[in-house]
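Students often ask what a holo structure prediction actually looks like on paper. The answer is less mysterious than it sounds. You provide the chain, you provide the ligand, and the output is a string of discrete structure tokens encoding the 3D arrangement of the protein together with iron/sulfur cluster.
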Amino acid sequence: MKNRMSKSTGSFNGKLIRVDLTTQRITIEDCSDAMTDWLGGSGYAAKLLFDELPAWVTPYDPRNLIIISAGALIGTPAPGACKMSISTIGPVTGGWATGSSDSHLGVELKQAGYDFIILEGRSTRPVYLYINNDVIEIRSADVLWGLDTWETIDKLNELHGESLHSLVIGPAGENMSRGACVLQGKYRAFGRCGTGAVFGSKLLKAVVCKGSGYVHVNNPSAFLHKVSECRSRIMNSDTFREMGRLGTVNSYRQRQKIGAVAYKNFQGYQLPDDLFESIDPEPIIKKYQISRSGFPGCPISCNRIIHFTDGEYSGLTSMMSPYEIVGGIMSKLAIADSHYQVKVFTECNRMGLDVDMVGGAIAWAMECWQRGILTEDDTEGLELTWGDKNVVSKLIKQIAYREGFGSILTEGSAKAAELIGRGSDYYAMHIKGQDLYEMMRSSTGLCLGVAVSTRGGTHTTGAPCIEQSSIRVSDDEAQRIFGLSAYQVQNPDTYDGKAEMIVYYEQLTRAINSLGICLFNTVWLDMNFMNLDDITELINQGVGLTLTTDELKEMTMKLIDMEKAINIKFAGFDRTDDMPTPRDITEAVPDGPRKGWKLDMNQYNLMLDRYYELHGWDTVSGLPTRETLIRRGLDNVLEFMETKFKE
Ligand code: SF4
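The corresponding structure tokens follow.
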């Protein structure tokens, strides 16, 4: 392969920390090739997981790896360069699992001189990893085990006599709930995929890190020039102003207008007017916001801190709940109490639970209750009535501690439905086991992007949001970015061109996830934000590569091949796993302006064929072809597949 690295490695350190929790051995390894061949970050994590783990390794096997990555641009002023990733073989899908989050800890790790932490083995006692520049120690977490995430963070700060940045798990992780996530600080989660449960399986409670070095860039003046150009495009936009005003919940009214708010486990696509008004997050922000909250390098700073001064939750201070809470819990469970969205966000955070899994599992259960599939005999006396927030709060605790009916829900809706049977699987809204808050019938591109997502159903790995946006895309913009017309990009009903758009967004997400950049700073949200040309220049000037945009795109295609290979190796996924849910195939849009619109599965399958062709994957099996693997230099994947499919 062509050497794309100029002399300096700029903002990429080329060093990883490997920690064996079984033997307590800590080593520092060189990983200079991680950037040139894999873009660092989650791309390199995928390569390590495939290369180092035998196919029989399951998520909770001690041999499984947890790979914490601080992308090459983290610690630089590149817009939104603060997203750290955690990757592993995950318990939700059994395959590729990765989640990213805003993270001060990523900056600290880079400043300490490292790009990755790899954790393997299993400790015999609860531990946490302490990193302070060159001092790296596995320390006892006996006093932390059993605490919720907020208590853990407070205790860590008390133990160290200072406020440190940390990644922590809560009771959900300790009890290996499939919905367990890892929190960075008290509010930001590495969501979905159950990464917190893998921490718990290794008796790893937390990682803390302090670094006091500097993150250099390869060509400071060219890099800063590009950063400033990108920042000014972002900051001179209406999207920037709206995100600044309301954060991610700014889309609530638009979604209701177009019929893209899930009601009672997707039985409705629009909320009744009274429920819509009683969930509306805007009045909370107007009345209770005490500050904005951002992360290093982010011009948007979409987070805000809320402090209730009256009402049922008076005294509660928390980050304002993101749209996932509005669309994934409040509307889906029909909870008519706007203040509760902050409360339930806090409860999930303290337990270390992924909000999408919580919303998905409880919505499934409530619909099963509504239809008489579940009764008090199943729920140990709990009545699962829509809108009952007290029951929701009780279930969240039960899920985290694996108690009562929560011991079923803690598996997520897909596995819970398997355990219950009685036809309940139809109401489990998931892709590859991953609970959905995404509304697959709301638009064709979103549907495809969510269905093919390698980490299970999710909107952040290639699915577009632009089909549902109030922002109008011009033909020039659509052509410049995707090579498509505005109609193809934005019309939610057309299947034409959607595969091309998904592939572009997949390339974008793999590039930024590897580098550590936030999706909201890119053309995913607004056509004037950063595109792949901008990202290419930032890599070249920041890290010292000499990539063209086409070369970057081809590298990201290799990363997606590798994620796919992980899913083949550990989960056995194929084309049948890239389909919409049975409900989305069977039912039409129930209400709203697109009422009656139904997925055309012939068209869907043609769109999926086109998507596979663009990747160089076989349209029958959905797996990478021999030619593709050879072209992308993935000989080891080819060897594995040839052996596997000969058996
Ligand atoms: S836009 Fe929001 S989520 Fe993204 S980096 Fe900025 S603060 Fe974080």
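The chain has a mean pLDDT of 95.
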